[in-house]
Write a structure and sequence with these properties.
By secondary structure, the chain is α+β, with helices and mostly antiparallel strands. It is built from 14 helices and six strands. A four-stranded antiparallel beta sheet has the order 3-4-5-6. A two-stranded antiparallel sheet has the order 1-2. Helix 2 crosses helix 14 and helix 4 packs across helix 11. The radius of gyration is 28 Å and the shape is elongated. The two termini are 36 Å apart. 31% of the residues are buried.
Length: 391
């Protein structure tokens, strides 16, 4: 007996066909690729999307640091040493006794305790410093190329004080230095991960695909690197940097030092997956179809490792950021005049500074914590979205 099954409407055929936009006349069927399916699943994870927006904002802040910073990072005003943060106020007293809309900050009045000779700042309500958008300020070169003198936010009258996050021991604006430090710290993590990704995927693929002597040599190198104590080795390599090198040279050397020890975990994961997949039916079929070794590696096996690679890469970026911050905090990484989050934290090492100016520790440390958490949440979301076994 033959059973006839009647299907009302168009039928989906094949594993890669997904009903995306049903229409009124039977429906429209389109094939969604791997990346489209990954993006749709990632967009449903609101925490990962929010983390991605935070990371994108941090990189945009670093890219346009000169425009976003109210002042130059090295502009010192000793008369405002360790000045506390100023609050933005939207309304000010008008000439008729009422209030008017005027975004501003209030100025400082300095007082000296004659007994302890300590200097303190009090808010002076009589000093009103109007602030605005796209104001004229200190001249700079955007990306070192375009001469400009406009800043996103700043005092309307050049020369007035506006320290939204306070100042350091030399009277430099902490907000401007934090923005400039975002560029250095975030770019070190990105460049370091790119180097680690290249080394880890390349050596891991070769080790798992070929096996034999190639695998033995690569694995012994990984074991030697993994057996080395990371922090003492970083300290030794960073201390070997000549003092006569320019800040740019030191920056690239620190990036290389941080990335040289971050690829071993990814290489071992890629090697293990290659060992498991190189004998699968789809790899054998591709080999019998005439695919060369390069096509087998990059076209057939590596795409199946997307979830592992994305997870490792996104989780490696905060490791790079913390490593740079730790080296600079210990005084053997980046040094002034380079501005990074680690350099800013180095200025808050003693208890006296933390007690008198806690903002010097709170804001740079908060930036590091925010970046690390955002990358962790983004990595979890991307790993779940790219997992081919997730239902």
């Amino acid at each position: 007996m033959t059973e006839h099954i009647f299907i009302d409407g168009p039928a989906e055929t094949g594993p890669a066909v997904t009903l995306l936009k049903p229409g009124t006349s039977g429906g429209e069927i389109a094939a969604a690729g791997q990346w489209a399916l990954i993006w749709r699943r990632f967009a449903r994870n609101k925490v990962a999307v929010a983390a991605g927006i935070v990371i994108l904002a941090l990189y945009l802040i670093g890219a346009f640091a000169e425009f976003l910073a109210p002042a130059l990072p090295d502009a010192a005003r000793p008369q405002f040493t360790n000045a506390p943060p100023q609050k933005i106020r939207l309304f000010a007293a008008g000439p008729d006794g009422g209030s008017r809309f005027l975004p501003h900050v209030t100025g400082y009045s300095m007082q000296v305790d004659q007994a302890s000779l300590r200097r303190s700042y009090v808010v002076d309500e009589a000093k009103v410093v109007p602030i605005g958008l796209f104001v004229k300020g200190p001249a700079y070169r955007l990306w070192g190329l375009i001469p400009m003198d406009r800043h996103l936010v700043g005092p309307v009258r050049p020369g007035d004080t506006m320290y939204l996050l306070g100042t350091d021991k030399l009277g430099r604006d902490l907000l401007s230095r934090l923005i400039y430090g975002t560029r250095v710290s975030m770019s070190i993590g990105l460049v370091g991960v790119c180097i680690s990704l290249l080394l880890g995927v390349t050596l891991g693929s070769l080790s798992g695909f070929y096996g034999g002597a190639v695998d033995m040599v690569i694995q012994r190198v990984i074991e030697v690197i993994s057996a080395m104590p990371t922090i003492p080795l970083w300290l030794g390599l960073a201390a070997a940097i000549p003092l006569t090198w320019s800040p740019l040279q030191v920056y690239f050397v620190i990036t290389l030092i941080v990335s040289l020890f971050g690829w071993t975990g990814l290489a071992r994961e890629v090697r293990g997956r290659f060992y498991a997949l190189r004998g699968e039916d789809f790899v054998t079929a591709a080999r019998l179809d005439g695919s060369g070794e390069r096509r087998l590696i990059f076209r057939h096996i590596l795409p199946s490792l997307t979830s592992h690679i994305l997870a490792v890469v996104t989780l490696a970026v905060p490791t790079m950021i913390v490593a740079e911050t730790a080296l600079s905090f210990l005084g053997i990484g980046l040094k002034p005049p380079v501005v990074s989050w680690g350099v800013l934290l180095q200025e808050a090492q003693n208890v006296r500074t933390i007690a008198g100016a806690p903002w010097l520790l709170a804001w740079p440390a908060g930036a590091v914590v925010l970046a690390v958490l955002a990358f962790n949440f983004l990595g979890d979301g991307m790993r779940d979205a790219a997992d081919p076994y997730d239902s």
